[in-house]
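Forwarding the complex inputs:
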Amino acid sequence: MITTAGKPADPAFLIITGLALNAFSGVPGLFLKRAAAVGQKLATLLAVAGALCGLAGCFSAIASGETESFLINWSLPFGPCEIAIDPLAALFLLSVFLISGCCAVYANGYWPAAKQPATSRALSFFIGILSASMALLIIARNGVFFLMAWEVMAVSAYFAFTVESGKVEVRKAGMLYLVCTHTGTMALFVMFVLLRNMTGSFLLPPTASLSPFVPGAALVFFAALFGFGMKAGIMPLHIWLPAAHANGPSHVSAMMSGVMLKMGIYGIIRIISLFTPVPAWWGAVVLGLGIFSGVTGIVSAIGQNDIKRLLAYSSIENIGIITMGIGAALIGQSIGNQTLLFLGMGGALLHVLNHSLFKSLLFLGSGAIIHATGTREINRMGGLARRMPRTAPLFLLGAMAICGLPPLNGFVSEFLLYFGFFSGVKESTAPALLGMGLAVTALALIGALALACFVKVYGVAFLGLPRSAEAEDGHESPWQMSAAMGLLALSCLAVGLLPRYAAVLVQPAVFTLFPSLVASGSNISTHVPLDVLGAIGAALIAAAAILAVVYHRRLKSAPQASAATWGCGYLQPSARIQYTSTSFAEMLVRLFRGTVRPRYELPKISGFMPASAGFSSRIPDTVLDAAILPVLRVTGIVFSFFRRLQNGEQNLYVLYIFITLVLLLVWIH
Amino acid sequence: MTDILIHLLLTIFMPPLLLGVIGKTKAAFAGRVGAPFLQPYYDLAKLIRKGSVFSDTTTWIFRAGPIVTLAATLVAALLIPLGSHNSPVSFAGDMVLFAYLFALGRFFTTTAALDTGSSFEGMGAAREATFACLAEPTLFFTLMTLSRLSGSLSLTPMLTNLTVSLWFRAGAALILLVGGMFIVLLAENCRIPFDDPTTHLELTMIHEVMVLDHSGPAFAYILYGAAVKLFVIGAFFIHIALPIKTGNPLLDWGVFILSMLGLAVAIGVVESIMARLRLLRIPQLLVAACILSAFSMLLILR
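Prediction (whole assembly, two chains):
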């Protein structure tokens, strides 16, 4: 298993160089207090160089399809530390490097050091550390080493998104995030300890080497689902996600939503892949969680009026879609349906990549909107397409991609998932069949709801008349922001039009996860006619182009006039009579009021000449407000006597540490 | 080859005729003579030569909307088999593409409507997007049932597999499918009882209100696209409801054309004898359609 890095073009060498460059990118800026702008330029340069290095390494690691591993002998008591780069790791590293490179470029326009010297230095530093720690945890093969990288990631993300810690909202979101991420990490501690009891070392065992029927295996499974699910934002564990994504700088949100959530997915996939043969009920649990997360995530997204909260809820939905794919693949493995196994896992992994592309694009786009208008409230936007001619089409591409519309990348991964589910429906018997039928229906419902959601966002924010003075004064963003978004939009289009090559990226990772499949001689492309899909995408674009030419000719040959929008006879239209984000979503929110629980504050109107009154509506987070906060409040009261321990005196805290150490020593002997 | 040619010719030229037949049927019920069968063609020819009026609020999205919607509908028309003949383009998984092409059309119709900044068009867009969420699961339940019945994952074998003898074996499931799909057919194509294409009250409309501001060639694209959509979803429905096959290719084309005209008459009859539903009732009917198709799937599981 142990190979050494020989040539400098070795994938592992490239990836580790990229990682180091990323980690180091913010450091020079820390010493350039006077010249923050130079520091930011330097950080961008280093991060982009790191990203290019890392991307080259990822592509060559995927192309070779082999696993490279290194053993580091360190003196820590957790045994030897192994790092390994296999195609699965390379696939996840791909989005880490791509998105961190784009965000580094974007930051120059969005958070220029010239305007925000103090925070920009901290931001560059923590973003560099964040992307490096994510890359490190992907290649770590030792439980303790993994947890260290995991913790660095969690904490650096906290510092990155709470960079404006002067705001109460930001501090609240940060606290919620810290509590949640550490609750999740606690479950991961339990999980790695259990794994150590099964294998005898903290090194992660090779793929498919453990039996899921030994005692403790199920506990490992649930601990992984809880700990990693908390980070990924699977539905009942998502509570930290909307506030954290909404309150940070937009490129940090893009990093968190586009990449950091995927670390949870990576963990779930990696841990489950250690076991074989996975029992069907594991698959059913994962599939069920995915369906729940997908449907409730998008239903909650529709009602939101804060563009970044909406995108955050939509991330929960997409994580749900990915989880559905993983669950379906596990079911496929246990019932022996190879198509389902291939396409469930292949679709899920491709959706991981795709979601990091279009969700980062949308978050960066929302940053451009905030940059232009200074508000996150969709109801105060409008008419931005005329004011932001570069951002608007890029955001439109992202919105289309996230709805899974052909010919963009979202369609390709959802197509793979649909195909897998349908093959399950076609071939399997009762219990698996019902699960697959439910999955198809859920995916169809999610698709239609996502479409409603993103038509609302695009239509209300970019089209129509400006609804406020801020939107009226909106302006285009600097070229660095457009360039970063343009690259992501181009990637979305490329994956959509060349699905065969996207499958080539994902294929080796599927083989890594299920080594037994290599012998079958088939791959994703032999199961699904991906070439036809790409050709149809091209045909669609060609058809639209022909129709556009015809239309243009007709327009020229007949008189044109411009007028006000037809007001159905009303002659005094204003921007305020337009449909808003709230009114667009009203019917759907009412249909799903059991899930989203909208709160209305209705005015009391009485008498013949009522005084002026106000109306407001708000959609709280059901899980957080209805379930978790009440429980925490009671817990807080019950355990209030513990607070005496926290009295603010540092010397006492040192004493606590000392006492704990002594107790541990006593316990060991 | 001949079959592909006939498929293309029918797809391009027949759709407006269905609208003409629906109009004539409604006129007959109302005791009027009605417009000639070819009236929709005359309308299209007139619109394509007319000038356009654009609202000051609109952007390029407003112009792209009808183009993309029509392109998506035309590509979808290539995927559906007509009568007992195979479709020109058929591959495993094409039913998903079929459904998502209509979603693409919906995306552009609704964004183009929001582009005008009109509150009425906003209403239409919101309704269209909302009702589609309820219609989509029905379509997918139907596709799953058909896929299970035919043991295939492509529209052509799925639909051409349906025969009269299958009706004797799985009649109950197919009747439920017919019910569910007829509701979806009416809802997706904005016919009564879901939407009234002839009303003059913008407040109650869905599809027509979204295109209030379109004019000239763009409006021709929209009307033509809507007719093609009716034709395509109608052809899908005909496969389930009237799977008659003679074995003679030419005769089969004749049977297909007659069944499509019959479907147009049926839609005309429904439009004549029913009133438009209250807006709040529409989701209930759509959920009912979804349950019908879900039951049909359960029936074939046994």
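The first strand of chain B starts at residue 52 and ends at 55.
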